[in-house]
Design a protein that fits this description.
The protein has 6 helices and 3 strands; from the N terminus they run H-E-E-E-H-H-H-H-H. It is mainly alpha-helical and 123 residues long. A 3-stranded mixed β-sheet has the order 1-3-2.
Length: 123
Amino acid sequence: MIDALIQEAECRGYRIRWHRGGPNAAWIPTQRAITVQDGMDDATTLCALAHELGHAHYNDPPGHHGMREIRADRFAAKLLVSPTEYAAAEALFGPQPALIANELGVTVKVLKTWTSIYERNAA
């Protein structure tokens, strides 16, 4: 899934780079590049890349700004979590976010963001 997301980013005209140390990932708008920390587990890598792709999608400036971070989190959650796959995982594991996230290959943070979007839309 990471390769597919990298391909999607490149199709949108963004370059993917890898770095050691520092943040999990970062959007560098002046270079139209997303840099991702090498050596993270697959779920963390995937979710960090999707989050930064959200910043790229909205052409956010550098830095961590509250609403932009929330918007990038939501972008990543919508991109990575399918309602059908979530329902199947929840049927298997019940209301266990860590187990569901593991089944879906995402972080618990992304899963919780997705469920908050779903709950808000269901209300």
